[in-house]
Amino acid sequence: MSQAMTAHLGLGSNLGDRRLQLEEALRRLHRREGIQLTRLSSLYETAPVGFLDQPPFLNLCAEIRTTLSPAVLLRTLLQVEQELHRVRRVRWGPRTIDVDLLLYGDRILREERLTVPHPRMTERPFVLIPLAEIAGEIPVPGTGKTVHQWRAEMGTPEDVVPLPNPLTLEQVTT
Ligand SMILES: Nc1ncnc2c1ncn2[C@@H]1O[C@H](COP(=O)(O)OP(=O)(O)OP(=O)(O)O)[C@@H](O)[C@H]1O
Ligand SMILES: Nc1nc2c(c(=O)[nH]1)N=C(CO)CN2
């Protein structure tokens, strides 16, 4: 068994019961061997980025402790997406669930199917705002800046709105 690492995930949904799908994805991840959910950000409603003609997303970020390697962790995230019947037709388009690996400790990976830190995370308000809540002091490897510094540079977008009743760690781990 390898040493447990801290990693950060970004989750999003903009089709169907968005909140339920995020909740179910988190519950399934926590039940997987080698993954323990340790912190959740607030839940945000966010305007779509990239492909604009699609419904608003719910997004949040999660901290996990994991003994899985980055490659096995990514495979597990993709499996959970499949279990939730993710349908994806358009790049950056609507999806029932999306789970991205944002950070894996202080590792930098540039593999064919896995880039860590996630290559677009420092330009995405729907990632940086929730991530800053739970990982503000963490340096984004290879960038020379912390999550908080990236988030501060972005200003305060109006289209990332915290929901009054977020998901709780207790709710998804018990
Ligand atoms: N850090 C990462 N997290 C998740 N997927 C990654 C990562 N790096 C590379 N990938 C690859 O990206 C592929 C496509 O991912 P996905 O469909 O979630 O992209 P997308 O959500 O449409 O766009 P984006 O990557 O901009 O969020 C995955 O199958 C995976 O192999
Ligand atoms: N607001 C928001 N926009 C997106 C999102 C997302 O999760 N939230 N995911 C995308 C696919 O990578 C593209 N655009």
Automatic annotation (TrEMBL):
Q: Which reaction does it catalyse?
A: 6-hydroxymethyl-7,8-dihydropterin + ATP = (7,8-dihydropterin-6-yl)methyl diphosphate + AMP + H(+)
PROSITE patterns in the cross-refs: HPPK
Matching entries from InterPro entries are given as: Hppk (IPR000550), Hppk_sf (IPR035907)
GO-annotated biological processes: folic acid biosynthetic process; tetrahydrofolate biosynthetic process
Assigned keywords, A-Z: ATP-binding, Folate biosynthesis, Kinase, Nucleotide-binding, Transferase
UniProt EC number: 2.7.6.3
Q: Domain named 7,8-dihydro-6-hydroxymethylpterin-pyrophosphokinase: which ranges? A: 91-102
Describe which pathway this protein belongs to, using the record's wording: Cofactor biosynthesis; tetrahydrofolate biosynthesis; 2-amino-4-hydroxy-6-hydroxymethyl-7,8-dihydropteridine diphosphate from 7,8-dihydroneopterin triphosphate: step 4/4
**Domain of life (superkingdom):** Bacteria
Give a GO molecular function annotation for the protein. Answer: 2-amino-4-hydroxy-6-hydroxymethyldihydropteridine diphosphokinase activity
Q: Which Pfam families match?
A: HPPK (PF01288)
What EC class is this?
A: transferase
Q: Can you say what this protein is called?
A: 2-amino-4-hydroxy-6-hydroxymethyldihydropteridine diphosphokinase
Annotated organism of origin: Kroppenstedtia eburnea
